User: Fold this.
Amino acid sequence: MKRFSFIQIVSFVLASWTVPTDALTLDALLQKTIDKNPQIQKARCDLEGAMGRRLVFRAVALPNATIDAVGGDQGGHRAGEQPNQPFGFARGLFTQPLFNAAIPPSLRRGDVEILVAQQQLNVAVVEQLHAARTAFYTAIYNRSFKGVQAEQRRRLEQNIITQKDRYESGLAERGVYVAAEVQARELDPRILAAQRAYDGAVLKLAEAMGEDLGPKATLPKPEGELNYQPVDVDLNPEVAAALQRRADLKLARLLVRAANEDQRIIEAGYYPSLNAIVAGTYIPVSGVRRENTTSPRRSDVVISAEINGGGVLTWHVIDNGKVQGAVLKQRSAREINELELRKLEADLPRELSRLRNEFDAISSKHASLAPAASVAEENTATVQQNLAAGVVSQFEFRLAENAMLEIKSGLLTLAYQQNLARAEWDRATGRYFQFSDDTGQNVP
Assistant:
């Protein structure tokens, strides 16, 4: 069984996190997912089962030996014999295939069975790590989004206090105070929605790690931040490397090989088979005679231990559609697997091209939105001071606050979308895990 020396996510590099020792980092999440995820554990058990199935495929080339033993007791009264006389004999048969057209494809099919199970394990690892990573990003995003909304609500609540004081002092109308309170309360549903989304993502994290989800379960607390980082990818080399590296493509190719070997095994029914046979009979006593024999020779009457050998040629000449029908059915399965493989290989360049365009679109949006963040904060601070002095209206303050909130939320959303796209890029290019001897650059 092929084991990973270490599993490493290769495209998510957050610089210098300072987190508590008991915090759930991305590395800790992925390691726990590898160790305890139920789907990965099931794939490991399937790999062990594939080793047993390989023995079944190889059995067609191995010798076959059987031993039959017969015993009993002969009763009755005869002159010069005991009333009860036990008897017994043993028969043995040894068969060794000499020529069988099914042997070579069966041996190859057994080897492919192990490779298929290994790639199924790899596919399960990629799928579960990707799901855990996506849930991790979603949890951090909704926690950060909730923090932005809560910070905005805190600023609006300070404005409520200011407008209340001005109203009680007779410097402002009641409508201004009510409008400030309504503006602050508008954020409550968005904060609650972010909290629900965070709780759902944390639950997915616990499921990915195989944690106990009973009444007393302690849900994980992911730590870290989502940061935007420039991404530059070269599409053509990535497509060529992904075609050779992706676990699902390797699995699809192995399934085509397995279906082809299965077809060859079935087609072996068209050819003759030759077996070497050694048979023997052992009788522990002498003087046992056959009854009702028609041979004139006395030696043919006496039964004794013997051994003989020879060969047996078997050829199923008339098919009656049994072999041909099975071949046609298996050929259909092989062609379906080939079509699925071609579809996956054809979809890969389009998928990577779409992700590259998504990177470019996110980069363009971030470039246009990032400079506006500092301007929006300065404008909001100025409008808030003027509102406290009664220079501007509540409507102008509301527009400034909403603009700053949309810019901050937009930047956070772009960072979230980029991290999701990078995770999808790693999945599409087969970079979700690497072996210790793989020192190539894996981060786009």
Notes: The beta strands are 64-75, 84-99, 273-282, 288-289, 302-303, 306-314. Confidence is low (pLDDT under 50) at residues 1-21, 435-444.
